[in-house]
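Structure (tokenized):
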């Protein structure tokens, strides 16, 4: 039992949790500002409410699929977790979304937003970001 607790603590301790402005700069550097018509503030807002900027965030859904990483990308449609049926639209292993190298997560988010649901595929974006003043998400960031 102690070994399991230790491994869990190591996993949590090694998670990259971005600061808001740091994450905004990473997104901007990776071409997310204006991608598919969505402002940088929309992406920062989405990430805040999906994962609190945590690269190791996971969430088990009622349909037994799991959301992974900073964008909470779903295993049923976008990645393969080796456990549930998937379309694997991003053609990646879900574990690749849990690393501190966020390039895979950003590329997959770009793929998700190209789908007909667009950025509306993210429930947190619809609930917390859509049709709202998002200026506070970039305030003081200099981006």
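Design, position by position:
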């Amino acid at each position: 039992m102690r070994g399991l607790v230790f491994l869990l603590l190591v996993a949590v301790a090694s998670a990259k949790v971005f600061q808001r402005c740091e994450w905004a700069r990473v997104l901007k550097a990776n071409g997310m500002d204006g991608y598919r018509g969505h402002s940088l503030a929309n992406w920062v807002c989405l990430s805040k409410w999906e994962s609190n900027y945590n690269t190791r965030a996971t969430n088990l859904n009622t349909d037994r699929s799991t959301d992974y990483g900073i964008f909470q990308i779903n295993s049923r449609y976008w990645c393969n977790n080796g456990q549930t049926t998937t379309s694997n639209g991003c053609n990646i292993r879900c574990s690749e979304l849990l690393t501190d190298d966020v390039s895979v997560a950003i590329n997959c988010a770009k793929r998700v937003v190209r789908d007909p649901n667009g950025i509306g595929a993210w429930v947190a974006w619809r609930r917390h970001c859509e049709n709202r003043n998002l200026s506070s998400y970039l305030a003081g960031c200099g981006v």
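Reviewer-requested clarification: The radius of gyration is 15 Å. Confidence is low (pLDDT under 50) at residues 3-13.
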